[in-house]
TrEMBL record:
This is Threonyl/alanyl tRNA synthetase SAD domain-containing protein. GO terms for molecular function: metal ion binding; nucleotide binding; Ser-tRNA(Ala) deacylase activity. The keyword DNA-binding does not apply. Keywords: Metal-binding, Zinc. It comes from Psilocybe cyanescens. The lineage of its organism: Eukaryota, Fungi, Dikarya, Basidiomycota, Agaricomycotina. Gene3D superfamilies: 2.40.30.130, Threonyl-trna Synthetase, Chain A, domain 2 (3.30.980.10). Residues 243-270 are annotated as: Disordered.
Length: 287
């Protein structure tokens, strides 16, 4: 008899997201923005849209062009090119759009303002002081200050990834968890710490940098074990807690000469009050 496989749409298990500090909770006040670490996209990474509301918004104008002083300015690798025009910076109560951070590139998506049914393109999201700020494109023919009127504090909106945004994020998050698994195996089986890594969207390759070359046998054994763990269906969950001490909040991450962050630690641009640890059952715990 032929084997039959059924593919069911994946859903996030109810115990995926675990708040382990008794003092930490999700803000219920719609005028407060949910801190990065507790965002809807981090509680349920398969969520494509939520209804929420505006906390605050303002117009951000591009800085005047800088004369290039011989040397080329260093460009951020992960951030998409921003249009050289005013953008709206929008802070929502909660979001499914992941703001760039921890090595994972920004999501893109849409905000639909309920009152007028308009859809606004989110070209990027970034952390500002531990909160996710959506960079919203102002449509042609509308000036930024007029556009801003749609984003009054309290205005109801639906924020979504859209089909393209969801595909982009699915790729990023799958590769990110894969990197955790690969780095854990390299470290525990071969004593090879991850010096740096890079996460980019398909078709660009992602990489993990280790201190020495690997033999073909080493590569095959790590690959076989990683695949075995994936096919076993090892569970992944996330534990969040409050940063326990001011020292921990301020602890700098060791850096390579190249300026890339090294090893396990909170990202250096992390200024939120929440610590998040990704656990792969029986394999790894990693911020
Ligand atoms: Zn990570």
């Amino acid at each position: 008899m032929a084997a039959t496989a059924f593919l069911i749409a994946p859903t996030t298990p109810p115990d995926y997201f675990r708040i382990i500090s008794p003092t930490l909770s999700l803000p219920t006040d719609p005028q407060i923005s949910t801190p990065v670490g507790l965002l809807a996209c981090q509680r349920d990474p398969l969520l494509r849209a939520i209804e929420t509301s505006v906390v605050t918004a303002y117009v951000s104008r591009p800085p005047p062009p800088q004369p290039t002083a011989g040397k080329k300015a260093k460009k951020a690798v992960l951030a998409p090119e921003l249009p050289n025009e005013p953008l709206l910076h929008v802070l929502l109560h909660d979001t499914v759009i992941f703001p760039e951070g921890g090595g994972q590139p920004t999501d893109t998506g849409l905000i639909e303002t309920t009152a007028d049914g308009s859809a606004w393109e989110v070209v990027q999201a970034k952390r500002h002081g531990g909160h996710a700020v959506h960079y919203v494109k102002v449509p042609n023919g509308i000036d930024a200050d007029t556009a801003l009127l749609a984003f009054q504090p309290g205005a109801k909106v639906t924020v979504s990834l859209g089909e393209k945004g969801y595909e982009r994020r699915y790729d990023h998050m799958s590769m990110h968890t894969s990197q955790h698994l690969l780095s854990a195996l390299l470290e525990t089986r071969l004593d090879l710490p991850t010096l740096s890594w890079s996460l980019t969207g398909y078709p660009n390759p992602c990489y993990v940098e280790v201190p020495r070359g690997m033999t073909q046998e080493e590569i095959s054994s790590i690959q076989a074990e990683a695949n075995r763990l994936v096919f076993e269906g090892r569970k992944v969950h996330v534990e969040v807690e409050e940063l326990d001490s001011p020292q921990e909040q301020a602890r700098p991450v060791q850096k390579l000469e190249s300026g890339r962050s090294v090893g396990k630690g909170l990202p250096e641009d992390y200024t939120g009050g929440v610590k998040r640890v990704v656990v792969i059952d029986g394999v790894d715990r990693n911020p």
